[in-house]
Fold these 3 entries.
Entry 1:
Amino acid sequence: MRSWGWLVALVGLLAGGVVVAPASAEAELTVAAALAAQDGRAAPVAGFVVGQPVSAGSVLRSGFTGDTAIAIADSASETGTARMLYVQVTSAYRAAFGLRTNPGLMGRRIVVAGQLTAYFSHGGLKEPTSMATSGGTTSDYYAAAAGKSGAALRAALHGIIGNHTKLSYSQVWTALQQTDQDPANAANVVLLYSGRSQSKTSNGGNADDWNREHVWPQSHGDFGTAAGPGTDLHHLRPEDVTVNSTRGNKDFDTGGSTVAECTGCRTDTDSFEPRDAVKGDVARMLMYMAIRYEGGDGYPDLELNDAVNNGSAPRTGRLSVLLRWHAADPPDAQERRRNEVVFATWQHNRNPFVDHPEWAASIWGT
């Protein structure tokens, strides 16, 4: 049957609008099925955008250089090119589906119809006749965790969030300027503990500068600033140099004396208490770290416990307090926005406890 995709594209271009043709009504293939059917047939394929192909074995997951190709996969966290379908993005679709122009497409589920044939000498889809985004991505991202609880849920979440783009410590400076941007002033970041809005460019090591706070202390597992836990944006936040020094590597608990330059914060010899507005944020960052880093991939096995004075052990507490903070301070719009930016632009993985706060009780109890 003749495709009228070219006519839809022409009408859209003449109207000056974005061209997004409706997806085919045929049954959608998975990426795996499309890779097995590279015989020139026309078919619609559904998958998650996972990068920009630049060669048969190489896909960019950030720093996109063009709008002419995307890679899709059956999992939003897929990193193996053998399980990706390379999709040609022709001129009619580049404004809406090119990754250089639309980096926020990373992780989005799309449906694309076209010819199943090699592209970049790799399993591909060429000459698309329709391209469309397809529904919310979060439930699909967590599909492997559906219906699970306790240890099974924990294992599923580790598998989902474990594959992500790892940054250098220097890249973190730039990333934090985006992830923690002040919604009321795009030239500033909001500091985690103090809540102060401060110029993005006033970062460094001097008093009243902001620097990179490891919410899970580097010394609790001795991972330093190497790529992985030392540069993971899901627990790195901008903070005033002096306040960061006061917090040091203390565990989290309630009580103590007030902290200079940090209204609502308290500290004693072995613990730090942040202001109320971010107590839940702190708890969820630590929960993420405990699930992401399980010791099986060359990184320490990070665990939450109900203690303070954890020192160099790969432990952080106090768990019972963190669970209370998590319940009392649920995710807000700014925390959800941050999760999206880390996912779409930088690491391409998510903090599951921002998306599903109820999972904390399933894994650690109430």
Entry 2:
Amino acid sequence: MTRETVARLVDHTLLKPEATAADVAALCAEAGDLGAFSVCVSPSRLPIPPGVLSPAVKVATVCGFPSGAHHDAVKAAEAAASVEHGADEVDMVVDLGLVKAGEWAAVAAQIAAVRAAVPAPALLKVIIESAALTDEEIVGSCRAAEQAGADFVKTSTGFHPGGGASEHAVRLMAEAVGGRLGVKASGGIRTADAAVAMIRAGATRLGLSGTRAVLDGLPS
């Protein structure tokens, strides 16, 4: 896998709470330089000011982040506001309490509420926090996301103490969605070898904060 090929799978990410507008501007400049697919920033950092981001780079943001413990209407409103402010993609955090309780209809209903608030062409990714789930819960979350009309399932916020992406979780998610949805691996991917392993396990998108270091480990 070449540097360019992997770069086009990357959501170049800055979600630190202390990130400033200047930090976001630097992220956007770096994304263009690296050839990343998108930047992913907090909703409060939208809209991206004109001229800061290359037209070739998409804008992603998060919703219900990082806990997922938000009311359906709050998540839907946050997602809709982000799209109004220029987001092309929204990464929403699933309600982990509902997942752990096995309340799959409620999980799907919440995802569907956000989907209705951000219809296509906006992309909706569902963060399932895979490191905190059993295999059965991972599969159930993926099925709920597909049922509700999501475009992607995503491993992690990167903020959960349980950890980030794993090859096992990515492989399980890829099998569950069977190519009908994308799979985003995010959280703790810091080397080229780790990034390639996630892609080989089935990831079709990567969430990276240390993008340059990962790409520097790949052949041109």
Entry 3:
Amino acid sequence: MFRLLIGAIILCASPAFSDVWTFETPSENIQCSVGEELEFSDIRCTIIEKNGPPALPRPSSCHADWGHDFVMSNTGIVQMLCAPLSRNRDGYDRAEYGVTGKFGGFLCNSSKKGLECKNEDGHGFFLSRAVQRVF
């Protein structure tokens, strides 16, 4: 119950000047961090274990892990990062299934189907073990 309360507070908190929040899905397979400043915010989510093809084709210049890290700002398109995968599963507050949070220009919904986050422009991503997509 405490983790649910903390997760809800983190997802719905109002920023001071510059804040960073972290949360994960109950499976601990998707972890996100949100940075928020006065006029700008960004979110980075990592899916640790995934199946299927990546949401976007791997760039020829990418020689690290691909398809695990998704980044977007409060406006603009989603980017995927070519970066070594971190399998750290500690230190994140839990966003229980059924929790929707609006913060820093983002709306994220954690469900049993996966995690979906959208920005102010309507761009976003959906992440689950079986499917990863950007829109």
